[in-house]
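User: C-alpha cells in, sequence out, please.
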C-alpha cells in the first residue's frame, strides 16, 4: 500500500483522494480551512457546464464534456440535488449573432448537444427572455457542489484521513519519498497531489517547482433575485461572451435549492481570498501588481475591466446588464449573495492561462490552473491527476 498526501479539500482534491482510496492507497488530505469546499467549489453558481466555450481538443473541452455526464451520474447515484435543465445563450442584438454562431460551431467541434433557435422557441423555454437568436444547450445542469464534496469525503474516510485546519508548508525529497511539512506534523509519503486553488503557485514554489505562472485572484460578485421576481427565470440564461475576456459575463441561473443566482462579474481581488472590497492584504496585492504579466494584461483590457468595476460599485449597473437578458430586473430586485474568487493563472507575458495547467516533478503533481469548469470536470481531472501521479512516481 502506498501513502499519498493531497493538498486541498475542494472538489478536485477530494475527488483525487477518493480515487486513490478506491484503488487501495492510503491518503492524507491537508486542508488549511476548518471545513470542506470553502473557496472556489463552495462559492460558485452550481452549474454543470457542457464544454461549450473551450478550445477544441483542450483539457477543458474534453473534461467538461465528459464531466457533464460523470458529475450528473454521481449526483443522481448519491441522491445529491441535481437538475438537467439545459440553458440558453442569447444574442440580444443582431451584432451579437456572429458570436453566437461561433459558439454553435464550437459546440459541434466539442461534441456538445446544442442548436440555434429563434426568439419564439427561446421564449418557450424562457418566456421573459430578450433575444434575436439563441443557442439551446441541453447538457448544462445544476448541482449542489458542497453536497458533492461531502459525498466524496465519505468515500475518502474509509481508507484515508482528512485533516481540517492543517495547512501545507513545504515538501522535499527524502530517501526516494517525499517529506511533507505541515502546520502540525511531518509526513513521509510516496507522492503528493496539490490542488491548492488560490495558493496553487505558492504550494508549487514550496515544493521547489517553478509554476511558470502566478495566480491572479478575480472576485466574482453575486446577487439573488428577490422572491417576487424569480418567476422571470426558469433555468439558465447567459449572454454571448466577450472573446477578449476569459469570463462569461453576468448571467442568471436557477439553483437546486430554489431561487435565482445573478452574476458574477469579475474584478481584481485585493487579496487571494478577498471576497469584498474591504478584504485587503498589501503583501498579496503587491505580488499581483509586481508580476510583469499584470500590467500587460491590464493595458489590453482597460474597457472591459472598467465595466466590471462599474458593475461592482453600482447595483444599478449590475441590474442593467441583467435586464438586457431579461427585461424587468431592477436594482431593487437584487439581494447581495456571497462572492467567489476565481484562481486564474497569469503568465509573465500577460496571458491568462486558458486551459487547465498541471506541473509535475518526481513524486509530485500540482494543479496550477483549474478555474471553471473544474467543478464540472472534477471527477475527470482526478482521473487525469492519478494517472500523472503514477507516471511521476514510477
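Assistant: Sequence out:
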Amino acid at each position: 500500500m502506498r501513502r499519498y498526501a493531497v493538498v486541498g479539500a475542494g472538489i478536485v482534491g477530494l475527488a483525487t483522494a477518493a480515487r486513490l482510496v478506491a484503488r487501495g492507497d492510503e491518503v492524507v488530505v491537508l486542508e488549511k480551512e476548518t471545513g470542506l469546499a470553502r473557496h472556489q467549489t463552495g462559492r460558485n453558481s452550481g452549474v454543470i457546464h457542457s464544454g461549450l466555450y473551450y478550445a477544441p481538443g483542450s483539457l477543458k473541452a474534453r473534461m467538461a464534456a465528459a464531466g457533464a455526464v460523470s458529475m450528473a451520474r454521481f449526483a443522481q447515484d448519491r441522491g445529491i440535488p441535481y437538475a438537467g435543465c439545459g440553458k440558453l445563450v442569447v444574442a440580444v442584438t443582431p451584432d451579437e449573432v456572429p458570436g453566437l454562431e461561433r459558439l454553435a460551431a464550437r459546440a459541434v467541434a466539442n461534441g456538445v448537444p446544442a442548436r440555434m433557435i429563434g426568439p419564439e422557441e427561446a421564449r418557450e423555454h424562457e418566456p421573459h427572455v430578450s433575444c434575436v437568436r439563441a443557442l439551446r444547450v441541453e447538457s448544462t445542469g445544476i448541482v449542489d457542489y458542497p453536497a458533492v464534496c461531502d459525498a466524496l469525503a465519505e468515500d475518502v474516510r474509509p481508507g484515508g484521513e482528512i485533516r481540517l485546519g492543517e495547512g501545507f508548508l513545504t515538501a522535499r525529497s527524502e530517501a526516494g519519498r517525499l517529506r511533507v511539512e505541515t502546520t502540525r506534523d511531518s509526513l513521509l509519503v510516496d507522492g503528493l497531489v496539490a490542488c491548492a486553488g488560490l495558493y496553487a503557485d505558492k504550494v508549487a514554489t514550496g515544493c521547489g517547482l517553478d509554476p511558470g505562472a502566478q495566480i491572479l485572484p478575480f472576485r466574482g460578485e453575486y446577487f439573488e433575485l428577490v422572491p417576487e421576481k424569480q418567476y422571470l427565470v426558469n433555468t439558465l440564461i447567459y449572454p454571448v461572451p466577450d472573446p477578449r475576456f476569459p469570463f462569461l459575463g453576468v448571467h442568471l441561473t436557477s439553483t437546486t435549492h430554489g431561487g435565482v443566482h445573478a452574476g458574477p462579474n469579475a474584478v481584481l481581488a485585493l487579496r487571494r481570498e478577498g471576497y469584498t472590497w474591504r478584504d485587503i492584504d498589501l503583501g498579496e496585492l503587491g505580488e499581483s501588481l509586481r508580476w510583469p504579466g499584470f500590467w500587460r494584461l491590464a493595458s489590453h483590457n482597460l474597457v472591459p475591466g472598467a465595466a466590471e468595476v462599474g458593475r461592482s460599485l453600482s447595483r444599478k449597473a449590475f441590474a442593467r446588464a441583467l435586464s438586457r437578458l431579461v427585461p424587468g430586473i431592477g436594482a431593487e430586485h437584487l439581494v447581495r449573495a456571497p462572492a467567489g474568487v476565481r484562481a486564474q493563472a497569469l503568465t509573465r507575458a500577460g496571458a491568462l492561462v486558458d486551459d487547465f495547467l498541471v506541473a509535475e516533478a518526481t513524486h509530485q503533481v500540482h494543479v496550477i490552473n483549474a478555474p471553471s469548469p473544474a467543478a464540472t470536470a472534477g471527477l475527470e481531472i482526478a482521473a487525469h491527476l492519478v494517472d500523472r501521479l503514477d507516471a511521476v512516481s514510477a
